[in-house]
Amino acid sequence: GENVEQHPSTLSVQEGDSAVIKCTYSDSASNYFPWYKQELGKRPQLIIDIRSNVGEKKDQRIAVTLNKTAKHFSLHITETQPEDSAVYFCAAPYSSASKIIFGSGTRLSIRP
Amino acid sequence: DTGVSQDPRHKITKRGQNVTFRCDPISEHNRLYWYRQTLGQGPEFLTYFQNEAQLEKSRLLSDRFSAERPKGSFSTLEIQRTEQGDSAMYLCASSLLRLEGGNYGYTFGSGTRLTVV
Questions:
Q1: Which end is more exposed in chain B, N or C (fewer Cβ atoms within 10 Å of the end residue's Cβ)?
Q2: What is the mean pLDDT of each run of 10 residues along chain B (117 residues)?
Q3: How many other β-carbons are positioned within 10 Å of the β-carbon of residue B39?
Q4: In this complex, do A43 and B91 lie within 8 Å of one another by their Cβ atoms?
């Protein structure tokens, strides 16, 4: 069925430390895995995505890794800053060219 | 503004009334999606269009909900006989599905916050 599971639901890290958020998906045909950041009262915004033909992608302090065999993908944020505080959502398409299903979100708090 | 626009931003309605929301996607995007988001949850899929064709409608969507995209550009989402459980943020997003296949990232609008009293 359509399912994307996301953990943890809340995460608090010290400023400067790293944060990792993990997701699993159910549809083995999924080929595109975006991550969205949503600040309070604002729209979700795409921050990074990865396609199934690569195992890792980096963009400055953020990176995403993909394990197709295990159907896991993860978001890594290094050198966290206060502005990283937000809710992060992973997502995956139910089929290769269909709508995307969102995880339940991780509320990330950066402690000063 | 070349982003996704939604109107209105906020809507308060009495239970039993009908409401209609509008979404204007990014002009070159051929796909348009409607999602619903309640507090503390991820966006929940409602329906999507490719050009003017409605390709899928969530089983969670009752018959009181209907969406249109008559000319393959803007879309409307109508909720008839609103209930308190319909209170949520209704998000529209658009994306480009290219001929060579594959999804590309959604661009979301700011949403319409519906409160049913």
A1: N
A2: 88 98 94 94 93 88 92 94 97 81 79 97
A3: 7
A4: yes
Beta-carbon contacts of residue B39 (< 8 Å; ≥ 6 apart): none
- Whether A43 sits inside 8 A of B42 (CB atoms) is no
CA B88, B48, B103, B108 dihedral sign is: negative
Nearest CB to B103 within list A6, A45, A93:
A93
Closest CA of chain B from A64, distance in Å: 15
Read off the tokens for A42.
């604002």
Cβ atoms < 10 Å from Cβ of A83: 8
Q: Positive or negative, the Cα torsion across B58, B63, B67, B71?
A: positive
Q: Which amino acid would we find at residue B18?
A: N
DSSP states of A37-62: EE-TTS--EEEEEEETT-SEEEETTE
Dump pLDDT digits (tens) for A12-68. 999 999 999 999 998 888 888 999 999 998 999 999 999 888 899 999 999 999 999
Number of Cβ within 10 Å of residue A20's Cβ equals: 16
What residues in B contact A45, CB-CB < 8 Å? Answer: 108
